[in-house]
Amino acid sequence: MADSTHLETLAIHAGQSPDPTSGAVMTPIVLASTFAQDGPGKHKGFEYARTGNPTRNTLERCLAALEGADHGVCFSSGCAAMTTLLHTLRPGDHIVASDDVYGGSFRILDKVFRPLGIETTQVDMTDVAAVEAAMTPATKMLWVETPTNPMLKLIDIAAVAAVGKAGGATVVVDNTFATPMLQRPLSLGADVVMHSTTKYLNGHSDVVGGVVMTSDAALAERLRFLQNAIGAIPGPFDCYLVLRGLKTLPVRMERHCKSAASIAAWLGAQPGVERVIYPGLASHPQKALADRQMAAPGGMISFVVAGGLPAASALLATVKVFVCAESLGGVESLIEHPAIMTHGSVPPEARAALGIDDGLIRISVGLEAEADLKADLEAALAAARAV
Ligand code: P1T
What we know:
The chain is α/β, with parallel strands linked by helices. Helices cover 38% and strands 15% of the residues. Helix 12 crosses helix 14. The structure holds ligand P1T.
C-alpha cells in the first residue's frame, strides 16, 4: 500500500494489497467458517471465523487507518459495537453521556447496563463544566456523540477529553454523524472512536455494522477478547461491502455536505419552517466550534415544521424523492420523525427537554440533484401547510 497520510488514498488502499495467490485487486470475500491447521495449533493466522476472518481483518485495518487508530475491531451493528465496548466496564462503574444520543444508544445505557449496575448520568455536554460536575470517583467512561442525534448539538471533543483524562475516565466518541472525513476524535484527545458503519462509512443502505477503534493497546486486546467471547461479529460479505463503500467516502462526504449546506440555508426561508438546525448556519449555537472542529458541518439537518404532528405526518407522507425511513448516511436522501421513529425509546419528558417535539423532522441529505431535493421538500411543505 502507498505510504500516505491522505484520507482519500487510505480509504481506497489502507490495509489492502492485491491477493497474493491470484493478484485480485479487490479484497476476496472469505466465507469459510473454519481454517485448516497443519497440526493442532499450527495455523496460518486463522483458526475459526468468529475469532478472525481475512476480509474482516482488512476492513478493520482500513477503518483504523482512517481514524488514525492502531486498532479497529468490527461488530455486527453499531449497537453491538457499543455493547461490547461497555462490557469492558464492571458493576459499580459510572458513565457520563451526552443527553442527546441515538435512541438505541440511550436504550442500551438505560435498559441493558443500568440493570447490571452500571449507572449513566446524561448531561448537556455542550457545557463542559456540566461534564466535570457529573463525574464521580466511579466515573470510568465519557460517552460523547457529536454532532448529536437528532438535535445536532456539537460537543468540544478536546475540552471534554481533557476533563475525562483528568478524571481517569475513558473518552469515547461516537463519530457516526461526522465520519473521519469531518473530524478525527483521537487526534483531539479521545481514547476510543466508535461508528455505526451502517451509515456514511458503508454509505449504500445495504449493511448493518459497527466498529470500535483505539490506539490503547490494552483496551484493544480486551476488545479483541470480547469480540471473540461475545461473538457479535459481522459477516464477511458485509465486511466486503463496507470496504467497497469506504473507497468513495471522501467524495460522497463532500457532496453530502455541499448539498446539505445549500438545503439548510434554503429551508430557513420556506414558509411553515419554524427553525432549522444545521451546524453550518450562523444561527447554530456552536457554529464557531463547527468551524474549528469539523472540516465541514455534515450531511444531516433537523428542522421544525409549524403545525406539530399532523403537519409533520403530512410532510413525511408527501415526499417522493426523500424516503421516509430510519437511518442516515446513504446515497439516497432519507427523512424521518425522531419522536416516533428513531427516538421512540427516549421517555417523552426527556424528548421534550431536548426539543425532540412533534414538529421535529430529521433529514439525511443524499447524493441526488439538489434541485430535485428542494422541489420535493417544497411540495411536502405545501402539503404540511394545507393540514
Ligand atoms: O443501527 P446500528 O448500526 O446498530 O447503530 C446504532 C447507532 C449508533 N450511533 C449513532 C449515532 C446512530 O445514529 C446509530 C443508529 N442510528 C439510526 C438508525 C438513526 O436513524 O439514527
